[in-house]
Write a structure and sequence with these properties.
Ribosomal Protein L4, Chain: A, 2 domains, alpha/beta, 207 residues, 6 strands
Length: 207
C-alpha cells in the first residue's frame, strides 16, 4: 500500500493514510489514456453542422438557358454546386461522433491517471474542505495557503459552499467522485482528494 500524508486546509499534517495500490500504483500505459481522451472529446462534439445539398437549396428548377447556341457553358439548374448560392457537395450533415470503450478500459484509465499524478507528487489528500459561507475570497485564501494554483478537487458528498465558491476561479474545478474522468485529471496540474471520497473511488473502480 502507498502511504501519503493527509493535510487540512491550513496546510498542516492531519495524519497518514494508506492508498490502494490497485488505484494509485498501477503501470501507466499512454496509449490507453490517449484512447480514452479521444473518446471523451469525441463524445463532447455536438455534431450538428449542416449544409444544404442541391436538392435542398431554395430556387427554381427551370433550366437557366437553352442547351445550345448561346456560347455559354451548358447549365441545367441554378442550384448547381458550381454556382453562387447553389448546393454544397459532400458538405457536413448532423451526425453522432460518440462511441464507447469497454468499461474495464475506462476504469483502468482513471487508475492510470491517478497513479501518474501520485507518482509526480501532484496528488493531495485533505481531511475535509468545509467553508462556512459561499465566498470566493475564502476559497482563494485556502488555495494560497496550500500553494496550489491549478487543481481538480474531488469530493465524496455534495459540498455546495465549496462548489459555488470555486466556480469563478480560473484553473479549479470541483467534481464528485462519481464523475471523475481521465480528461479532467490530465487537464489540471494537481488532484485534491477529500478523504471521504477514497472509499467511493475504491468501490467504483475496483468493483
Amino acid at each position: 500500500m502507498a502511504v501519503t500524508e493527509v493535510k487540512n486546509i491550513e496546510n498542516k499534517k492531519a495524519g497518514d493514510i494508506e492508498l490502494n495500490e490497485a488505484i494509485f500504483g498501477v503501470e501507466v500505459k499512454e496509449h490507453i489514456i490517449h484512447d480514452i481522451v479521444r473518446m471523451q472529446l469525441a463524445n463532447r462534439r455536438s455534431g450538428n453542422a449542416c449544409t444544404k445539398t442541391r436538392a435542398e437549396v431554395r430556387g427554381s428548377g427551370a433550366k437557366p438557358w437553352r442547351q445550345k447556341g448561346t456560347g455559354r457553358a451548358r447549365a441545367g439548374t441554378r442550384k448547381s454546386p458550381l454556382w453562387r448560392g447553389g448546393g454544397t457537395t459532400f458538405g457536413p450533415k448532423p451526425r453522432d461522433f460518440s462511441y464507447k470503450l469497454p468499461r474495464k478500459v475506462r476504469k483502468s484509465g482513471i487508475c492510470m491517471a491517478l497513479s501518474s499524478r501520485f507518482s509526480e507528487d501532484n496528488l493531495v489528500v485533505l481531511d475535509a474542505f468545509q467553508l462556512e459561507q459561499i465566498k470566493t475570497r475564502n476559497f482563494v485564501e485556502v488555495m494560497n495557503t496550500l500553494s496550489i494554483d491549478n487543481a481538480l478537487i474531488v469530493t465524496g458528498a455534495l459540498n455546495e459552499n465549496l462548489e459555488k465558491s470555486s466556480r469563478n476561479v480560473h484553473g479549479f474545478k470541483v467534481m464528485s467522485s462519481k464523475g471523475l474522468n481521465v480528461y479532467d485529471i490530465l487537464l489540471h496540474k494537481k488532484v485534491i482528494l477529500l478523504q471521504d471520497c477514497l472509499g467511493q473511488l475504491e468501490e467504483r473502480l475496483l468493483s
